[in-house]
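Sharing a chain and its predicted structure for anyone who wants a worked example. Both blocks are below, sequence first, tokens second.
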Amino acid sequence: QVQLVESEGGLVQAGGSLRLSCAASGLTFSSYAMGWFRQAPGKEREFVAALTWSGDTTYYANSVKGRFTISRDNAKDTVYLQMNSLKPEDTAVYYCAADTKFGAVVGGRNDYWGQGTQVTVSS
């Protein structure tokens, strides 16, 4: 009954911005580390960003560092991914991730996954 529901992605031109959200239910949100992964066509899923349940510690893939920001609003049971300066290579299905352990999220060993949302960046 745990659900992680990502917001609708979108189509954006290179250099533009998008903000994804992931609303959690069926779990005690403030007890969970959260993260984002993505999977491009024909490629394996890759880590994007993660943060602790407190939001004090974040970790980013080198490919998005300085461009993406992960944050959370525990009052809304929601985690966000602000994506700026988007590039065509950011095109992928983006997945929300949750686990009680930060390391599990970073390593893709998290207990829960969202259904994914498509982000397409045109050149």
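Comments welcome. The chain has a mean pLDDT of 96.
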